[in-house]
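LAB NOTEBOOK - FOLDING QUEUE
OPERATOR: T.R.
BATCH SIZE: 2
PURPOSE: Compare the predicted structure-token outputs for two unrelated chains run back to back under identical settings.
PRIORITY: normal
REVIEWER: second-year student, initials M.K.

ITEM 1
FIELD SEQUENCE / FIELD STRUCTURE:
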Amino acid sequence: MPPFPPLRLSPLFPLTRALSTAPSRPLRLTLASPTADLAPYIDISRLSESTRSPIPPEDFVFYPELLDQAEQSALLERGLQKLDRTLGRGRGRRRRGKEEGRDGEGIMGLFEVEDMYGFEEGHYDQVITLYRECPISSLLLPTAPSDTPTPPPLLSALSKIFALFPSTTTSPSPSSSSPTPTPTIDPLAVPPHLQAHLLHLSARGHIGRHVDNLGASGSVILGVSLGGERVGRFERQASEGGERERFEVRLRSGDVYLQRDSVRYEWEHSILERGMFAGEEVGGGQRLSLMLRDLHPSGARRGGF
């Protein structure tokens, strides 16, 4: 058998190989994106052009599937651990005769069955039902040994998320009484110009229609969806006496959305327990979200949703 001819590589081989292995930029959608691009993720069929066009593109930005499966699992697992260690399980401690189990397959298997959690019936402002939540300054577990390695997918997930937050948000007013920040070695710390909290919804939980509190934070909020799919609805009165207009977003695990200014304070928004999207029923599963807000101009870390 004759020998194989020598392999001849194109002079562009190193470049094409580098390009093929370079990380791709995440898909970024706004309400000004082409309708065909929006269709799998954002339903604007009930939104007139006269209402849609004045919305600044930066006021609603959507990043579908920003996090891969490993990143979703690492962030969801750590978020549930933080909630459990901060809040305890309440009534969710093992009931007599009740076997501990998981709530599904894949990423849903990271949730325990609902009876294991102590969900609150209603929020103080009556907007959120069947939920657990807590503010966080880090995703580091306080009882973990200092030399415990951080899962690389958790680090990469937070790196992606923090990089999306606008750098031009309002900075807190300087105060002579404010302590000088000290360098941190916590790789999972929330950046000091942001405030964060975790929100865990029961499969029967939802967030009712509301506009955000002007006094609770600055102008921007970023949400990371993990676990069960839900429909996010944004609606407003188009004109006095006119019909309400709306757009809806299919929130899958690993999706990230960013709201600012007009979409936070002029559009009522909600997370449905169950809804329809593109003719398909969506909802009915537990959901965890990591929420990031820029600080209020006063520099205070305030509550509110």
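ITEM 2
FIELD SEQUENCE / FIELD STRUCTURE:
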Amino acid sequence: MAPSQDVTVDKNGTKSQGMIEVRRLDSTKGEAVFATVNISRGTRIAAEVPLIMIPPTSDNEEVLEFFKASDQVPDDKLSEMVHILCQLSVTESIREDQHIRREAWTFYKNKKWRDRDGNTLQGKKLARAVKKTINLCAIYLTHNVQLGPGGKYGSGVFSLYSRINHSCAPNAHNSWNPTMKRLTLHATQDLKAGDQIFVNYIGHVCRTRQQRAFSLFATWGITCECEACTEPTIDQLRHRMLVTDQALAAYACGASEESNFSAVHGIPRIATPQEALKAAEELVQLLKRQRLYGMELYIKSDDDGRYRECSNYAFDSGLYDKALEYALKELELERLLIGTETGHLQDEPSGAEYWVDHVRMQIIR
């Protein structure tokens, strides 16, 4: 069951919602979300509807689609968006982007210089309307979440999720559930009352500290200080994960069949399903060692997750019981990270139940 969506606000401006609360930090760090009770791994912390949502679209059309969508959003939701905090350096660069400014003026020109109520805009009123629209676009571009793998269902901005901070060692996972039409948030670790809740903004964990730092600062203007970014031993583990991930990717696409592959690319060569299984199982252990129990184990944004990889390579190696074992682990993790409202995955090969049934059928044959 999803927690209550009722929100209470105390004299300090702390917003409480179910088993969590939003607290205002110092002026440089904005807001953060904390657990108010002990939360067990797999618990659904929240399930929220978007403040604004745009359909799947190309990067070139995204800004215009946002302008169209914002024109239909109720005033109370736009007001909530305005109060979402952003890094000033990021939003300022977006506001000064000439493409976005041109798109905003073109949007109002195509509307014959009218607001959403049909009133004619001109002079200062028109300038204020364009400025407000650009400001909202800056918030959207900073805080929007892809809905489904690769933005299959579009993208949206969420009030609570926008206030959750990033960590490269997160303790929660967000996922768009098209069956529920909500963004769900589940605990990936046991949490204690008072723990801050973190998610991973950049998705892939098989990256070095330098790679993650570049993405985080370029997109959100933040510098992460989590343990994965400050402990050299963890960065060594992440580097090992990156190399192993690259080796598996090369094997999957056939690139490792090239002569002198390791010498040319500096990546270990994987030549057989057995070697691929061993590498994938190593990645699983490296993830668990760092308590990374999120979607990297279940399914990645553009490829199979680690449990699915292990299941596939076990099957290719003739280890059918092990293939089923990993398929069942994937199903267990799916229920922890998404829940049981998975009607949208019933006939999808990416769904864990589909894969379990597929493996069982293959074993019978």
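REVIEWER COMMENT (ITEM 2): The first strand starts at residue 7 and ends at 9.
FOLLOW-UP: none requested
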